[in-house]
Amino acid sequence: MTKFHRVLFLVLLFILNWVKGQDDTQSKISPKFEKLVAQIKNNQSRNESYNLSKTLIAETKRDGEDKDLLQAYVITSGIAPDSLATKYCDSILNIAIKLKDQTAIGASYFSIAGRSMRVFDYKKAAEYFAISYDYYLSQKNTYWEKTNLLSIGRLKSLIGEDNAASNLFLEHYNYFKSNQITPDHKFSFNFAKVYIIYINSKLKKYKENETLIREVYTFFDQNKKYSFFKFHILLADGRNDFSLGNYNSALVKLENARKAIDLVDSQNLDNIDFYIAMCYWKMGNIDKAFPIFENIKKNFLKTKKTSLEFRPTFDFFTEYYKKNGTTEQQLASLNDLLEFDKYEKDVKSYVQLKLKDFDEKHKTEEEFLTEDEQRFGNWLSIAIISLSSIAVAYFVYKKVKTKTQNEKVEVSEAPTISTNFHEQQKTEEEKQNEISLDTGIDYSLYRPINKLTVDQILGSMKTFETSLGFLEQDLKLTALAQKFNTNEKYLSKVIKVNLGKTFNAYLTDLRFEYLDEKLKTDSQFKNQMIKEISSKLGFGSPEFFATAFKEKYGKSPKEYFEA
Prior knowledge:
By secondary structure, the chain is mainly α. The protein has helices spanning 3-25, 34-42, 46-63, 66-77, 82-99, 102-118, 122-138, 142-158, 162-177, 183-202, 206-222, 230-244, 247-260, 266-282, 286-303, 311-324, 327-407, 420-424, 428-432, 451-466, 477-483, 488-499, 503-521, 530-536, 542-553, 557-562.
């Protein structure tokens, strides 16, 4: 696509995104509660905001509107202490399922995943971020789809996939750069810079960070209502200085971040303390580093969870006891290090597995966008050539007309061109894409996929359904496309055009149809454990099965089977 084409494409994309953004960001809560919501958002104390959000829940409950109560739980889940947040997230999920609100269901998974990140439960976070992304994708909710990329990018960075994380951060950044419709959009745009600063410091891109750091500080200075989040830039700036080896400067910024943070946000507090300890260690101040690292180590040994960034904590103790400890202490520190390494390997492999499905879907979306850009570019090329031809023809016509008028020459009528010319010029591909009289399939809807490929995929789908291939555990789009001897982009499009469904919806519907038949023919089938039924139906997790089940049948599996 030429630069000219790309500019026109981006103009159109901006207009479409602006309209979409208006839908995504409009307030969904009743006007009577907007004043209280504004107080919650603008309050600079997290504890006060949390108390106000509980008041909002109480008032929406009294009012009796589930949609308002849903929004109240969404707001509260982002403010509540870690120990209570999951309760609010579960409430979001229950009401969203009741309302059959797909976007809200996705939001509930997103909230649960975010809270799981805060308490270092990366396995659950990866699974639920991937599920929420799928919901947003199916609903074509671009605002939340792009918001989700920031969280998934954080997970990618934690498992060492820094370049992939950087790409996701930049995609999030570029979306909000082009969609600064509301103050919250502008906040999201600047918040993306915080994570770009962090990843840049890991990738040694310090020059890029200089401008970004200035811009984010300026944003927070000019927008006091977001000052609650200012500790994020102080932490990112401190990390950047640490990576540069400017430990004294890093310490000042990290201490300021610690003062700015509300103690409710436990994960970020641990992150700040870790980098403070790292600065002390690098500066040779072992006495100050030791108690901070000791606290991190104890928490890990107690909970078996910690940040994957905290591995240097265990390196510190192996080095320390090698110089100052007994043989017993040295062995103990090595055992702790080995335990962390085992934990790290387990978490990384699980997160990579769970994000594989996201990678496939995200790749497919990018390919669709590239294909759409190419088509648009081709369309623009045709339009430009056509307009140019008309202009040239008009110019020639004017010249000829002037000349003939001057020479007073009569112009004979031009011969009529045969109308059969265009019919004779039809390509084989166009013939293939016409509506088939035999099958009744409009192949033009599947373009650019040709007729033979469409027939082959539809035939494979029929075999797949009759052979119960949909019961395969954790079946992915890419894997099924390979079995069909096609690619995921074509398979996804054929399913969408033929059935009006996403790949996941197609699989889920087939599995529930099978379940309905099974319950009619096998009275003992429902007496199994929910986990076993979920597994036999091919669902990746009992939680996802339970959510999809309640969405379809209006009851939980247990309630339905016991009825």
